[in-house]
Structure formats: C-alpha cells, structure tokens
Specification:
homodimer; about 240 residues; alpha+beta; Jelly Rolls; Arc Repressor Mutant, subunit A; 2 domains; four-stranded antiparallel β-sheet; 11 strands; about 20% strand; globular; DNA-binding
Chain lengths: ~240, ~240
DNA sequence: CTGAAAAATTAACCTGGATTATTTTTTTTA
DNA sequence: TAAAAAAAATAATCCAGGTTAATTTTTCAG
C-alpha cells in the first residue's frame, strides 16, 4: 500500500484495478472529480471495520487492494457471512442508501479503498454510472444465488470445493494468484458461516480434501494441488 | 386484465402499480416515450414462459399484474426456484444484458407486463433510471440473502413460515391481499425447490402448520389463521 | 363426463452433518 | 519469550430431514 506516499507527493494514484471491474466505467470518464475525492481516508488495517451493521449513512467504496468480508448478525446471535469483497469490487451499496447498513464490512487483510463521493449526483452527471451500479448489483445477486444453489443441492465437500474454486477464479481474473496459490485470510469459522456448516464439520471436510490431494490451506495461503479434480468436484457451474 | 381493450380503444393504460415500486421513477418522467412502447405484447397466460434460461436477448419487464416465478435448472437436473416476482416488480435484468438468460421466468397466473424498451438509451436520457435499476437489484439481492440466511439457520417449519410471511407482506404492501387471504399459485414442489427441502417434507410440515392453526392453503389460496403465532415463529427479521 | 396425468398425502427407514466435549496447535499480547 | 487467547483438530453420539415406496385426491384434456 504505497498510495499514501503518492498522495503526499501530490501525484495522482492510479488504481491497480483501473480498467477492470466496477471502476472502469466510472474512472474512464470523470477521473478528475473522482480522483479528487477518492484519495482520502483510504486505508484500513486487518480486522478493522469499514462500517458496521446498523451504521447510518455509511459510504460507498471500491476496494483497491486487500480483502473485505461482509457479515450479518441475526437477533438470535448467529452470524451469516455473505461474501468476500475482492479488489476491484464495489461495496456498501444498498437499496436505502441513507438507512442503516444491512451488514458489517470488515477488512481481513490490510486494505485500501477508494470512496465514491456522491452517488445521486454522479448518477445524474454521468449516465453510465447508474448502469454500472446496477450491473455490479446484478452480479452480486447472481453470486449470492450461486451460493444459495450450492448450499441447497450439494454436500459439505462440494460446497467447500465450490467456495474455494469461486474465490480462486475471482482472484485469478485480477491476476492476484501466484500459480495455484492465493492468499486466504478466511478462518474455518468464516467458511462455516458462509456455507451453513459447523466449524467442526468444515474442519473434518478440509482434512479429507487435503488427504485426497485437492487443496491445502496453510498459514493464510491456499494452494490448489489437483486443479482438475477440484473442477470435477465443483462441476461446470462456477 | 382489461388493458388490451384499453389499448384497442386507443386509451393509455394506467398501470395499477404506477406510484409504487420500480415504475415510479421511470414513469413519473418520460411517460410519453415509455407508454408508447409499453402497451404491446403484454399478456402471458398461466404456465407460459416469459423467457427461458439460455434465451438470448430476452427483454426487461415490469410486472403489472399476475405472478411470475424465476427458476433455474442445474446440469444435474435439479431445479432451483429463486423467487416469485409480484406486481410492480422488475424482471429480466442481469449483468450481461445481451448474454443468455440465467434463469427462466414462468407465469403462474395470467399476467400482464410492461416492456422496458431500451435500457442503455433510457439510462442516458434519464439519469434517475439507472439508480432505480440499481436499487431494484439491491433489493432483490437483499431478498436472496434473507432466504439464504433462513435456509442456513432455520428448521423446515421456520423456513416455510418465513416464506409465507415474506410473500404475504410483499403482496399486502400492494394491497393485493383480502384480509389474511392471498392468492397462492405455488405448488408444494415450488416451495420445496425454493427452500431446499423435499416435497415430502414440505407436505409433512404444511400439514403440521395447518394442524397448529397457523395458516392453510386451499385451492390456490393461502389464509393466515394466526398472524401473531406466524410472526413469532418467523422472528422479527422479515 | 371420463380417463389420465399431476399433485398431494402417508408410512418406514436411513444418513449427513449437528451437537457436545476435550485436546492440541497457533497466534497474539504483555 | 512466556502466558493467554484464539483457532484447529479429533472423537462419540444423535436427530432433522432425506430416501424409497405406495396410495389417494385433484386437475385437466378430450
């Protein structure tokens, strides 16, 4: 994370994700205004909350680097993990922008975000922005539906394989892999709370998947050992 | 559905949902252009598909009246029901507009839709449209996340109660209830494929819920018999 | 109105993942 | 660098909902 020094040197920071994903349509057009606002209050350290469930008037961000996880606590104290937000992706948009945040966003790695200043204004000054926003939301919706389908129709082993494969491919698309290895800051409990399993069963299943030589997690890194076998297990619907 | 006669008589049809939901922002502004396109090819009978999973260049609709269900078949032949689309709601938007439809939309009741003509053009001619689209998608995403959470954390009895309550409130908001009675065209198999249960278990559970006097389904109508008990079972997170 | 197909119902048995309990390892903090 | 806290690992038992197999009722086409 070296953009802070760029900022203080008066240089415009070029987002590593520019040209990819959400930023593309926004940044291609009104870079001036956007960057003017963007490079302020941008760093979060691991375990820091970007905003919490219930916060009023939380902001809209694009993740530049790092890893953010979206979670929600229900009244009975159970935690649901909705998804990981990876570099280039939007976070913080919801139907009622001014209402309380429907979930919490926590950084799992040191993270840098760029703030989208005024959504309503940007939408009217820049027609493509609204459509980008809608596309990003539709994409999130589709991802949630894929998780839903996997959780409903498949075994613990297949669910975990799906999750690993999904994250790997999402990172690979942005060249954030090192061969078959990716950073993996999720705890077993996070996997469990994403897939509707218990921590114990995730542990058992991860053990079996490692034994079978599919992939292994070690020191916050995940390495796929048998890519083909993983794909077979997941099926073609990633 | 009397709008066809309106059309042939040369009258502008006023959508019963105007002023609610998705249409609001669109129709308040460019009614002329919109209605010009809208009142054509609008009727679907029960069991008719609006579009099918895989169809190219399917259209964007707003449901005026009726009931549409969104489903997807996975390669292993299992069917997932994603949600019911109720009057006033948008259907057919997805990340890649020109790509194959990611699910099928089937009318469960005789339905009337109004077609949204050219999304990209509308977005640029009318800045609020993009934001409306994004809001609608965010709302769908939130609904999917609620179903996900319920499916993961709750028993069959609670899941079904949640689904009934969610549909009842969504219809009531549009005054499409008759007291505690609503139209209910979903089959037990549809409930099962929405909630990740077997038809047999849905049947068992519906029987128990009726026995316990919570609600009953009869001849495609659902009547809530004990609203308070239903709310208690569902919890406050509808 | 009638036969066939679709949907709903019922019963008996079984299993994947939950639950409870405890130990070991790793990470964090002082 | 040692103590405390968090995370991972392992084992034994249990049950909600799945599976299989019919039967009955409802819907619908001819």
């Amino acid at each position: 994370m070296n953009f802070r020094s760029n900022e203080s040197a008066g240089l415009r920071y070029t987002c590593p994700q520019r040209g990819h994903c959400f930023c593309k349509s926004v940044l291609n057009i009104s870079s001036n205004e956007f960057d003017g606002h963007a490079v302020k209050n941008l760093a979060f350290t691991a375990k820091q909350y970007l905003y919490r469930q219930g916060d009023m008037n939380h902001e809209l961000f694009v993740l530049r680097e790092g890893w953010v996880m979206l979670t929600r606590l229900s009244e009975d104290g159970k935690r649901q993990v909705f998804r990981s937000v990876l570099p280039g992706e939007l976070l913080g948009f919801q139907q009622h922008l001014q209402g309380p945040a429907i979930y919490s966003a926590i950084a799992l790695l040191d993270s840098a975000v760029c703030r989208v200043p005024n959504i309503v204004k940007t939408c009217s000054s820049q027609p493509e922005f609204g459509l980008s926003l809608a596309s990003a939301e539709a994409n999130d919706k589709m991802l949630t539906e894929k998780y839903l389908t996997n959780i409903i129709h498949r075994s613990a082993r297949e669910r975990i394989a799906f999750m690993v494969s999904e994250l790997y491919h999402r990172l690979k698309r942005r060249h954030l892999n090192r061969g078959y290895t990716i950073q993996f800051p999720l705890k077993q409990e996070d996997i469990a709370d994403t897939l509707g399993l218990t921590t114990i069963h995730v542990n058992r299943t991860l053990h079996a998947l490692r034994e079978d030589g599919l992939f292994e997690i070690h020191k916050h890194e995940l390495t796929i050992l048998d890519y083909d076998a993983l794909c077979t297990l997941v099926g073609s619907e990633v």
